[in-house]
Design a protein that fits this description.
Belongs to the copper transporter (Ctr) (TC 1.A.56) family. SLC31A subfamily. The chain is an all-alpha fold. Helix content is 54%, strand content 0%.
Length: 348
């Protein structure tokens, strides 16, 4: 006769609890399953595609791992619209009836609690873009009454705040990025992925790779690109100093050639009136414009407050000055100590 081990009361209670849980969990969410959630999302985002929940859906459609689990699940995405943002929309009826007040459903597929609402996004985008014209403002044309446009408001708002995180309109973005699902997503400028990081406009000295350098397309995103950018700025600064020296030497030459012949002699007549050499005036004006273009470009680079870019310009100016000083001294000696009107100002 075979003997079977006896089950203790405690073990029996545990098995019963597991069986009950296994039976109840599917029942709790089966009335609003993934298929229903997907259909609801399609309806909701067709009616109002600018809602933040719809942009999260777009991210998840492109990459199912774009958000931490379970926030890419359709039920969680429906919750982003129906629980937090627009609960009275027609497409929310099934979710509100079966999942909004269901503890099991909310435990398995929670809505992203820190996600800003559509109204918050619209108001903050309108406020930011009224204060200053920033890259991205043209994508969302919102009225003072915060009507929703076709733009992806969450993406535009995140880009604006990533560029200038200290703005008074950006605390909701900071809150979203400090918790799931924002943390680690491409909506938050955490510096973890330079290939998608948004250049920031930080008004104090800082380090980092990703910066706008003079042009919208000049953004170093790798160490090689950053070092090559530093080298380019160093060489540009050297060329600026050498060009400035050539400008000074030209002034010396023009000043010497403008002296009237026989100026060492004496005359009792009235001094001859010098004629304006318009060729010289035009040449000096053009050189001044080129000089100012160089100078202001270098000034704008230093105003990125990026430490590496800043010192690339400073060191380049120093090296360029050391290379060009002998040229000026040689020209002075060749012209008998004649000096023009050198202007060593950097910018204007």
């Amino acid at each position: 006769m075979e003997h079977h081990p006896q089950m203790t009361p405690r073990t029996a209670r545990s098995l019963v609890a597991l069986l009950v849980a296994a039976c109840l969990v599917p029942t709790a969410v089966s009335a609003f399953d993934q298929a229903n959630a997907t259909a609801s999302l399609q309806s909701l985002c067709h009616d109002m595609p600018g809602m933040p929940g719809c942009y999260l859906k777009k991210l998840c459609d492109e990459n199912p791992s774009a958000l931490s689990e379970p926030y890419c699940h359709p039920i969680s995405l429906v919750g982003a619209v129906c629980l937090l943002d627009m609960p009275r929309m027609k497409g929310c009826a099934a979710y509100n009836a079966e999942c909004a007040n269901n503890a099991t459903c909310q435990s398995l597929y929670p809505a992203p609690a820190s996600l800003p609402t559509s109204a918050t996004l619209a108001q903050n985008i309108y406020s930011i873009c009224n204060e200053m014209s920033m890259d991205g403002c043209d994508r969302c044309r919102l009225t003072p009454t915060s009507r929703y446009s076709e733009c992806d408001m969450l993406e535009v708002y995140s880009n604006l705040c990533a560029a200038m995180p200290g703005m008074s309109q950006c605390p909701p973005w900071s809150t979203f990025c400090s918790s799931s699902p924002g943390m680690g997503s491409r909506l938050c400028n955490d510096g973890s992925d330079p290939s998608t990081q948004i250049p920031s406009m930080i008004m104090y000295f800082h380090t980092g790779l990703v910066e706008f350098i003079l042009f919208k397309s000049w953004i170093p995103r790798t160490y090689w690109q950053y070092w090559l950018s530093m080298l380019a700025l160093f060489l540009l600064s050297v060329v600026f100093e050498v060009f400035q020296a050539m400008h000074v030497i030209l002034d010396m030459h023009l000043a010497k050639s403008a002296k009237p012949l026989g100026s060492k002699g004496t005359t009792t007549g009235p001094p001859a009136q010098k004629r304006t050499n318009w060729n010289h005036v035009l040449l000096k004006g053009l050189l001044r414009m080129v000089h100012a273009t160089f100078a202001y470009a270098l000034m704008l680079v230093t105003m990125t407050y990026n430490v590496g870019l800043f010192f690339s310009v400073i060191v380049g100016l120093g090296v360029g000055n050391m290379l060009s000083a002998p040229l000026i001294k040689s020209a002075e000696n060749a012209m008998g100590g004649t000096s023009g009107d050198p202007n060593w100002e950097l910018c204007c």
